[in-house]
């Protein structure tokens, strides 16, 4: 790598001066995922992932899925625009909320499919 690789590609943009109150208000809007109040300034779009408050209620998990299940999960995620981990949480909750008889029926049906 040469020193020319370290050169800034775009000239630095001069930003207009703003008051402290405007800066704080704009920072609060950014944190809430709202558009910026400052004219001429572009804000980054809000992240679609988990925020700091909700990450405490989630734990990382590792488990094994079949290739077919992975493909189906990918397809559902692409069509719905919902993250795969969120889809799995939804499906787990749906199964959990069923009566034990309904759960047993689903499990037996899946067991019969693989025989």
From TrEMBL:
Gene3D superfamilies: Met repressor-like (1.10.1220.10). Coiled coil: none annotated. GO terms for biological process: regulation of DNA-templated transcription. Residues 62-98 form the Ribbon-helix-helix protein CopG domain. InterPro entries: Arc_rbn_hlx_hlx, CopG, Ribbon_hlx_hlx. This is Ribbon-helix-helix protein, CopG family. It comes from Shewanella cyperi. The lineage of its organism: Bacteria, Pseudomonadati, Pseudomonadota, Gammaproteobacteria, Alteromonadales.
């Amino acid at each position: 790598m040469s020193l020319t690789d370290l050169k800034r590609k775009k000239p630095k943009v001069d930003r207009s001066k703003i008051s402290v109150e405007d800066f704080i208000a704009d920072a609060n809007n950014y944190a809430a995922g709202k558009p910026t109040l400052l004219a001429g300034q572009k804000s980054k779009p809000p992240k679609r992932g988990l925020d700091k408050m909700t990450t405490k209620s989630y734990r990382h998990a590792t488990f094994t899925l079949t290739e077919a299940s992975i493909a189906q999960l990918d397809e559902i995620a692409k069509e719905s625009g919902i993250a795969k981990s969120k889809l799995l949480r939804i499906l787990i909750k749906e199964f959990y909320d069923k009566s034990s008889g309904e759960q047993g029926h689903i499990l037996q049906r899946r067991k019969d499919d693989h025989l």
